[in-house]
Design brief:
alpha/beta; 8-stranded mixed beta sheet
Length: 433
């Protein structure tokens, strides 16, 4: 009797998983085409008179001597004329300082160099470098990127055309990852699949979809006025996932957020091997849930059920069909995402291994923070008690909602005063006549 109940429960669970996977995969197939692809000929545009809104590219760099020269070379080859590049050397101990100075000396009208020699208390190194870059520029738009990103000559021109045409306050262009090995392909392919469950890119531009927000460190393009309204980077000065946090602040505040694909327009090599990707995620994963252990453990359990449940179902005769339907949906998702991300769909065969590695990365992130009682990143230690004040994924929506209410109350008070004064204004106007 008990065994029969367990079999029925397993059947119901597998059919529920199959339905869930088919629903999300079907939605992705139907709607991912709504996300603009700016690599198409339709966006091969030139601004009027070959000049558009001014743009500053802020490139923070700490010990990036190996990569930053290529990044600056590619930016200098950009076809967007109203462009200035601002390289921020963040306390580097390698040759980064000399490289950015060399570019500033060779191209004084196009490249500027700023050196940060100390980190103020209460700031992350990167967020402070981004704030310094924003304060030392005056352009209409600012692109915040990383020192290991490569840009095609037309990427900035296309992105700016997209930003102006859609009246965007924040534009994210999804980068194309360079894959240099099976481990990288396995992890990047799975992260793309996981990303579709966390954020639906086709709903990013919908103001009502509060949870569907994006931010990518390789390409966060913002309108200066919108960034000023938000108070710059200072409110999120200790946000470890600073790129996503920017998106979380923009959309709830009523800013127009847009996302675009663009194969080979923005290229980045995330990390060396699966191990390098796991190391890179260690800083971010636990911070993404504001260091909540229950939320982190729940995330691990959900990933194991959602992604490995269909494989377990293949072993049982009664659950074979729903398990197969779920796995076919996963394969279709890999195929669909391959067309956008450039990560080959064949790495989908390794996704069960990627799930285990991802769960380990989540646990590693949590354990490393608890053992240290904080985060060690780029040679600086950040205490957990301070980080918790700035890494809540919900605090930005609450802050933005409060700001909107304050603005609405101010507008209402202004209208009330205007209505109260209106009869007197009419009488004064009649006397003047």
């Amino acid at each position: 009797m008990i065994a029969t109940a367990w079999w029925r429960l397993a059947d119901c669970a597998e059919w529920a998983l199959a339905a869930l996977w088919m629903w999300r995969t079907n939605e992705a197939i139907r709607r991912i085409g709504e996300v603009t692809d700016i690599s198409t000929p339709a966006w091969d545009l030139l601004p009027p008179d070959n000049a558009g809104p001014s743009l500053t590219v802020v490139v923070p760099a700490r010990n990036e001597a190996e990569n930053i020269r290529a990044t600056l070379d590619f930016l200098l080859a950009s076809q967007y004329s109203s462009l200035y590049i601002l390289a921020i050397d963040d306390r580097s101990t390698d040759a980064t300082r000399q490289i950015v100075d060399e570019f500033a000396r060779r191209f004084p009208d196009r490249v500027g160099a700023i050196h940060i020699d100390y980190l103020p208390e209460g700031w992350l190194g990167k967020t402070f470098a981004l704030e310094v870059g924003a304060r030392n520029s005056s352009s209409d738009y600012i692109l915040f990127t990383d020192a290991d990103v490569l840009f095609s000559p037309s990427s900035l021109r296309r992105a700016m055309a997209f930003a102006v045409t859609t009246r965007a306050d924040h534009v994210v262009v999804m980068p194309t990852p360079q894959v240099k090995g099976h481990g990288e392909g396995m992890m990047l392919g799975f992260l793309s699949l996981l990303g579709v469950w966390l954020v639906r890119p086709w709903r990013v531009s919908d103001p009502a979809a509060r949870r569907d927000v994006l931010g990518v460190g390789a390409f966060n393009l913002v309108r200066r006025e919108a960034l000023n309204v938000l108070g710059g980077w200072e409110p999120q000065r200790l946000a470890l996932v600073e790129d996503v946090t920017l998106g979380r602040r923009m959309k709830p505040a009523g800013m127009r957020q847009r996302v675009a694909f663009g194969a080979e327009l923005v290229v980045i090599h995330w990390a060396k091997g699966a191990r390098g990707i796991v190391r890179g995620l260690t800083k971010n994963l636990f911070a993404s849930v504001n260091f909540n252990s229950l939320a982190m453990l729940s995330t691990c359990l959900i990933m194991l059920i959602l992604f490995l449940g269909p494989i377990a179902g293949l072993a049982l005769g009664s659950t074979f069909v729903p398990a197969l339907l779920a796995l076919c949906s996963i394969a279709a998702s890999y195929r669909l995402l391959n067309e956008r991300s450039g990560v080959r769909a064949r790495y989908g065969w390794l996704y069960p291994v990627a799930v285990i590695v991802m769960v380990w990365a989540v646990l590693r992130s949590m354990l490393s923070v608890w053992i240290r009682r904080g985060v060690m990143w780029r040679g600086t230690f950040y205490p957990l008690r301070e980080l918790r004040l700035h890494n809540s994924p919900w605090q930005w929506e609450l802050t933005a909602a409060e700001a909107r209410r304050t603005e609405e109350m101010g507008t209402a008070r202004f209208r009330a005063k205007l209505l109260a004064l209106w009869p007197a204004l009419r009488r004064k106007r009649k006397k003047t006549r």
